[in-house]
Amino acid sequence: MATQRETWRTHTGMMFAMIGTEVGLGNIWRFPYLCGKYGGGSFLVPYMVLLVGVAIFGMMCEWVIGRSTRREPMGAFQKIGFPFGRDIGAWGVIGPFFLYSYYIVITAWVLFFIVASAAGLYFGENTEDFFLGFLGSKWVFVAHAAAVAFTSLVLSFGVQKGIERACKVMIPSLFVLLIIVAVRSLTLPGAREGVEFYMRPRWAGIANAEAWLAALGQVFFTLSLGMGAMIIYGSYMRKSWGIPLNAFACSFGNTSASILAGFAIFPAAFALNLGGAVEGKEAVGLTFLVLPEVFGTMPAGRLFGGLFFLLLAFGALSSAISIQEPSIAWMKDELRWPRRKSALLTGVVLWLMGLPFVINGFVTHGAAGGSAGIGEKLALLIKMDKVINYLGLPLLALIAILAVGWVMKEKGFAELNRNARIKIGRWVKPWLRYVVPVLVLLVLVANLLEQFFGDTYKELVGAELPGFESVGITPLTVITIIVVCGIVWGGAIGGFLTVVGVERRKAREAQSRGADG
Questions:
Q1: N or C: the chain end with fewer CB closer than 10 Å?
Q2: pTM for the structure as a whole
Q3: DSSP tag of 313
Q4: CATH class of 12-465+474-516
Q5: What are the boundaries of each domain within the chain?
Q6: Per-residue pLDDT at 189
């Protein structure tokens, strides 16, 4: 006899869990790096357009598949009748293993830097030498084991007592800490240059095709699409909860973390004359080299450095929990294993899979016995990140969108609008069936071209971005701040208050019916 599927206990808890799935290293680690690379405000325009026009619909599709089938990805694609459904859905179970294996290693670095910041270990040191020294020390193994143990322990308690309860603590705490760090960054002397860089669109940058492709890849990555997690979390949604409004609220809630991360990083970096380093630095370098240097020279740097890495840890751990969950759900659904046994086994396997990335940084030496640089010590991790995030995740996200638009058809659209407070009109059908898949396919093709043809591809789509010029806060910058923050935070707060209001109204109605009975 099949066991009844566990669901989220409360609507609010579900929203925190969904946002926890999305908010992580992609928001606070990857988003600022891409903003720096593609000209700050020039990256925000394509990002916001593609978030609303494409990625939110991808999230809805994965929720539709999960809630309508009440299964993990393998069982879900099979149940809706997708060709080779179990084989295709297997990527939603296996893929997260590879993603988690290196994602948790980066999370381990974050855990170490909480302590390092609070203790001032890198203050007055060369941050690159300090980071390389950590990668070659025993503490990287300790931090890695601690990160895996934490996620496995939370997952062993189940959906309501584990995932939902942990996210209710971590996600609000993350936003509070992020606001504190952002306010401190904005109040530093000279911070206005960072705000100008971050919020002022430059039209030459907006016209850069490479920036649009990077933005589309980022919105899929940050919303955790294509990794099976949204299908699983969707399967825990109650039928009485609408999908469209929740999708918009969670998407804007996630994006608000990215926007806040930019306000926490760019003003401080420019105020401390590190703007050039931010503009040209890769994601790892920005987080573990430039930011420690920022905190090392900032007043009360130990406090704010510790708070920053603590909030980053909350985001990274909440996302890691969702990445590990698909494999546990598969063991429960297919093998009928108890959750705690599944959490323990997957934890051990994922710890072993992460060791090569840890060991690569621990034992790698430079050419001719010299010191190895960061590129050499992180070579394996960087290669895996490109394969998973540039190719693997967009592919499964594309399949989920095609499944709703072309396989489920009317059933899929009916499930999308089931009990929805705000229903999606019929115009969404051609949009989901034709426009969104073409745009996602474009990302896949572009990423393949970049991987195989490298510089030739960049010459075709890239354009030199104009350098940053300190001209003060312009009217365009102010307008951008109002528009972006108004849409993001207005949408997140409005959606959150609406769904909470619906939850309370239904609770009152249920209580009233009970009293009448």
A1: N
A2: 0.84
A3: H
A4: mainly alpha
A5: 12-465+474-516
A6: 87
